From TrEMBL, chains A, B, C, D:
InterPro entries: Gfo/Idh/MocA-like_OxRdtase_N, Gfo/Idh/MocA_oxidrdct_glycsds, GFO_IDH_MocA-like_dom, NAD(P)-bd_dom_sf. Keywords: NAD, Oxidoreductase. GO terms for molecular function: nucleotide binding; oxidoreductase activity. Residues 1-117 form the Gfo/Idh/MocA-like oxidoreductase N-terminal domain. This is Dehydrogenase. Coiled coil: none annotated. Residues 135-268 form the GFO/IDH/MocA-like oxidoreductase domain.
């Protein structure tokens, strides 16, 4: 694993837990890599890795490393992932795939070559592994929604409400790439495409920096990324989607919300109550129709057979364990003709990046439609 | 109509509205009766009654009066209702039927004689006409819950939380009969019996006066009724019910809540959200089971065809209009062999009173079971 | 009153009820007007009007008529309202003000002349009188939200989900003017402007007809209005708003939803639970912050002192009574220097119409910003 | 650790995770003990313990063992816990303390002797470590509820709704001790006492076996424990509490629900949404009072500084990690004069057991009050 901050902690928890919960091969947690030797040494001990190192190139070259899990900031993804794939390793790369499209294209080329050699190149859109969202996907695939016409997605947070909150690398374009759009909008758009099984074909977008200047080290400094963004999406299956994201949504803590409206039913999900999927079955008699709170904790629900009895809910972190579980199964089964592989892969990440770029391009073109 | 306070206003609203909403005979709002001439005159004008009067005996004797609607305090119910029934009028009497059982028994005798003459003696447990509760009843009758095993009912209010709130007639046994138990517990027990279609056969109860003395006109005075009450009920169909009522439940405004648990499904209702009925269908596949919020505003729902388009919710007051509508239909159809009559009637009120008496008796007997 | 369909019924209920609930002058319900004599005669009886008539011009000319309440379809508003205002009457006109802007401008001219003569020209955006939304307005005016940055509004219904549902006048541009945008989007945009106290200055919009052809009398026919619409709005106080409306939102019955995000707090409202206002106070200590469900039924809440005790909720129809109450007070107080008048008036309706037109114009211009 | 079933898995997860999340001493997971050698060997590997063993006496005798975590069924608790305490080990014992009071008294004696020697004897009522319930406790201690008058607690599950579900050790008195009362009622009563800070002084109770016979290996067999139970409790601080528990509550999966009503505020919690605490502050102006959903995921909330950013919710399992964290801190600080120790201890468990016994005794005495 390369990186040991927030995402490194979450991924470590998953690697530590996966074999206790699921029937997967045991994986040694060999090396954790970071630039600051003291800090990475402490992380190795705390997060229970066998060794630590400061040079990821040396680690990638080792024969006893099979999987490289990349938890660094986005601007480092391309170099590491390409090197790891070329060294014959399976790769799990945190989202976003890269900070710009050119890099992302190179990563996809490397991934395609590696996949042809039987390697896995997995991208970490972890929320696909939240059981309630996996159940939503199953309901859609089973036709329970009929034709999906309209999707309403948003991802709202409020950690920038205080206008005296200071500058950071996340608020500068050169380090962060983009703001709310790239950070959390990417999840919302990924869910729209993933749940519907449809790809975005045209985009209209708007970006806004609501607090344009914030205190930096030398006085007020320009915020160069978006605080909030809106997009209107056309999908190739005919659905229309709206996406709204913000870091200024007072009272919203981590509110990824998705609603799907179809000819036969509807679904609703909110990441602040991640164990609930709300389902409306429009084929029932009218007098008994209603939005139904499915508490997604039954053995019959995705991933749940591995955990606790019904009604014992999961937390945010469990989806990372599911992600590692799916990765290990994809690796184990990659030779089998019926293997489903790991989704999303790097190509999915590039496609998503192009949607986000189109939102930015549309905003720059005064809202004009950008076709993909 | 006799009485023009809170209940008089609500009943007047119903009489004024019923013919606009439902296909029922037009009823002239002939006379409103009260003891204070100025006040009842003002009420007649405000609530749109043709005349006012101060002597209910004279009014009951009039030939142009067909229905007597009794909205006075409970201790006056018996005298007026018996006189009205003996005068050949149909009677709608607000709950409680009476303040004591002896009076209630006399009222039932008068009602039975009157019913044999073709009169209606209706008791105003209005919440039976809340559409969501009427739908709950329909679901139970349609077998959607299977065998009902357990019922959890409560009615919580908070208007006595402030211990400096002063004495009133509602806090003295001689005027109020009982406290939370009789006032709101009666609704909870009525719903338990009505929704299950089962009668209480045995009772254990507890009463409590949480703030035992409150400021009166001459200093602190004893509160002689209960602030809160609990009961455990056995029903003749095998269900077991718990009932909890309180006027000290901080934050609860008018929270009549009922949950029914059956072998095939469950229902939940809360009067603070009266347009919603929550239904759990335990016969669906496990992976899609969940409590379903039915917004009870469809034309297919009880009473709703008379009102507004779907999604346009009703308020607390509409149930009074439904009650008057059902009364008028009961009167119209009373000669028909298939007429369903009006439920509850005075006998139902007496049966309910006996359950409440048993709660009090059980508490007096240190919680011992009282059999009915 | 002119018109006796859905809106006529709701307005009649309000006129019948207002003097029983509020301390306002008594108003005789003189004449109800419609084109079909039998139908309007039946309506007069059912809805309790003294007379009926078929020629609105004759009625407007009568001396015993002081107020004209216009509940006809939108394309008749201009002619009637202008005539009534010129005849010296006070006018209450249902929304939308008119089906096109040219007519609306003429109406505003007539209203301004009439207002100068002391007449009231009121527009019926009734939802401003829902107590929870009136309380929201009060919270904003009291500064409880600080600076409002972001607004998320939607109005979702589902009565067109069935693609075999047939054509009607509401689905043809020539009769309806527009589709979901004009019908329900107008309410959403009105709330955005009303609650923030800010006016829209720039608009980007999208319209969609999701089911483009529906069965008509002679086979499939083109739907010429929108099924759904989206808008992104800039307001003159700096807030940014999104609006989404649809008649294809499976499971949504009458879901007008508004969320306001400010520097000091947030508010949330949903018309399917109209007695609840959710308030987040961001000035409290972090550990106790949360979205708070205010059950808007206290005497301290707008309009509530007139109704029932706390916890006894109101329905959709009560807001119409509040509207008539405010109209009568505006008429009574119109000479007083401190009179607040009636809001919205025709000029507000025209301003709103221009926002909706801008949404349509933006969509026609491939999403380009339209400045107002 | 002794035992490797459901609770053994949950405790193992906690031991594996605690040092990654919290700043506590590292603890080697030395030995896991079970009777079936193959099964315990598999568990040791899966749950990541260094060794496995089949004889708990040998393990307790080892010098390299400091803490004994007892996850066996309740009837084995006494023997193991007493032996471990006498061997000088710290003990964490899962609830219930024991299956009968005599054993529990012996355990308390052993624990008191051990505590005098500086050992910790901890009892695993893990729900006290759910952050929302720890926050509730803090609110009560800070006086935010004023005087607590009324408590409404319930714990509802539905895994026995199917009357064809077969017999198991949990349904026989000789193995299980009691049914819903002991299994889940113990949690409800513990929360009542813990959150109020008051001890039960008097009890009235009822037990019911709703499905009295179930299919066993040789035909229908008597169920000898309760399916559901109800209790009415008096507490030494003046509060009155109701408790209702059931395994027949259709649709309820793991619904431990607690409501506290005080003179200054109220709290509500539901274990199916464990990251939410609902707080009503009755000292605010009436017009803005309401039940407030506090999403308990801020660094300011109990235990949360160790986990993820705000809005990233925890699951059922995290409370076990908190329990181990508190145990390790209690061990580390036990010599310090200001150490808070670990609560609950064995004496708390015995006191709780006496409350549950009183419920049973009251039911046997036809509901009579049992004084403690």
């Amino acid at each position: 694993m390369i990186g040991y901050a927030f995402m490194g902690r979450a991924h470590s928890q998953a690697w530590r837990t996966v074999a206790a919960a699921f029937d997967v091969p045991e994986i040694a947690r060999r090396v954790i890599v970071g630039r600051d030797e003291d800090a990475v040494a402490a992380a190795a001990q705390r997060l229970d890795w066998e060794e630590h190192a400061t040079d990821w190139r040396e680690v990638i070259a080792r024969d006893d490393i099979d999987i490289v899990d990349i938890c660094t900031p986005g601007f480092l993804h391309a170099e590491i992932a390409i090197a790891a794939l070329e060294a014959g390793k399976h790769v799990l790369c945190e989202k976003p795939l890269a900070n710009d499209t050119a890099e992302a294209e190179q990563m996809v080329a490397a991934a395609e070559a590696a996949q042809a050699r039987g390697q896995i190149a997995a991208l970490g859109f972890t929320y696909r592994r939240v059981p309630a969202l996996a159940l939503a996907k199953r309901f859609v695939e089973d036709g329970r929604l009929g034709t999906i016409r309209q999707v309403k997605a948003s991802y709202l947070q409020d950690w920038l409400v205080d206008e005296d909150a200071g500058m950071s690398w996340r608020l500068r374009r050169e380090t962060a790439g983009s703001g709310a759009l790239g950070d959390i909008g990417s999840h919302a758009v990924d869910q729209v495409q993933h749940l519907t099984g449809q790809q975005v074909t045209a985009v209209r977008g708007r970006l806004a920096t609501i607090v344009p200047r914030r205190p930096g080290e030398d006085g007020l400094e320009d915020v160069t990324v978006d605080d909030a963004a809106w997009a209107s999406l056309e999908l190739d299956g005919g659905a229309l989607a709206s996406v709204e994201v913000s870091r200024m949504a007072t009272g919203a803590k981590n509110r990824l919300s998705v609603e799907l409206f179809g000819s036969a039913g509807a679904l609703r999900f909110d990441l602040e109550s991640p164990n609930e999927l709300w389902f409306h079955d429009a084929t029932l008699p009218v007098a008994e129709q209603g939005l139904r709170r499915v508490l997604v904790t039954e053995p019959e629900h995705p991933y749940l057979e591995a955990w606790w009895p019904q009604g014992h809910v999961l937390g945010w972190e469990n989806a990372f364990t599911h992600q590692v579980r799916d990765l290990l199964i994809a690796i184990r089964d990659r030779e089998r003709p019926d293997a489903s592989g790991f989704s999303p892969d790097f190509a999915d990440g590039l496609a998503l990046q192009r949607v986000l770029d189109a939102v930015i391009a549309s905003d720059a073109a005064d809202g004009a439609t950008i076709t993909l």
